[in-house]
Write a structure and sequence with these properties.
By secondary structure, the chain is mainly beta. 9% of the residues lie in helices and 43% in strands. The protein contains 2 helices and 29 strands. The strands form 7 sheets. Strands 11-12-13-14-15-16-17 form a 7-stranded antiparallel β-sheet. Strands 3-4-5-6 form a 4-stranded antiparallel β-sheet, with no helix packed on it.
Length: 359
Amino acid sequence: MTIKSIILLAVITLTIVITILTIFIILPLISTLPDDLYPNVDGNNDVSPSPSPSPSPSTNDPSSNSDEDIVMGRGNTPGNIINGGYIAQTEDWIYIVEASGQFPLYKMRHDYSERQRVHPTEQGFTFVNVIGDWIYYSNMSINSGRNIYRMSIDGGKQEKLNDERNSWLITVVDGYIYYIGSDYYLYKLCINTLNIEKIIEDKVGMFNVVNDWIYYAIYENHGLYKIHVDGYNQTKLNDDYIHGIIVYNEWIYYTSYIQEERVSLLYRMHIYDNNYEKISNDNISFFNISEEWIYYSNRSDNDYLYRMKTDGSENELLYADKVAMINILGDWVYYSSLSPLPPMYRVRIDGSDHESLLD
């Protein structure tokens, strides 16, 4: 065998050995590397923080949830949730928290017939979301400590979903529950697995979840931000001191506290270009949005119920009563006369047919 033949044979043998090592050793090792070894990068090549390490999963057994199909959609409107989430609906039923006792939950037809209590035991409901066959809520009863629960829509089955006390602003969207914990961090809970993730390291005072984005205000600080629901592409939108947020039709509506004047004014910012404008000079506490109208409690006029168009035009007094916790469903505005009580009255969106819910 010539030297040339020996060299050629050696090269072929080395090539075979490298191929075997690549297929059976190197590639399997690469596949086991963690996904978060590399940072998330947005379209502007800005490095965004990776999702924070998640806390330990809930101790509840997720076996009864894991085989469920994810129900897409949302359990309540952003505007209702920031006002306590005291009313929600399905195609056939209205679910409403009553302002009596420990805030029990009732259901009734859309014509207010067949009124009945959903669950017989004494427990309080707030941040109610209804989606699929389940009602999701924060349990306000003394023994529960505001944990997140879900209950079948007929009230026959009830499950605790987390061990976090004081879970609030509960928002159910596309198979996940987003909420603020007692530590003021923002979490999301997978309904199918009960796995819980902390989304960001900022402490959050208020948020909305809309179209895969979370719009939020920093707790006890300045700043309006947005971040993807998976915890990347965090973006600061402004430095305002935010009280309330509602994302509606490509606009972020928010109340900002002006310390020099001691008033809370309403602004809106476009979600794509971040241009913003003040749309009212009224001092506003509670507000909600429906069908191109903003309904609000006007501190400049005895906290009476006012409304205006979403561009700030056609401002008018709707009903001369002190209002708080404004929830909207269909053609009705539901409100309480005292915060944080559930709605005790309702009035049509044109100001007619005022009714008490306690009769």
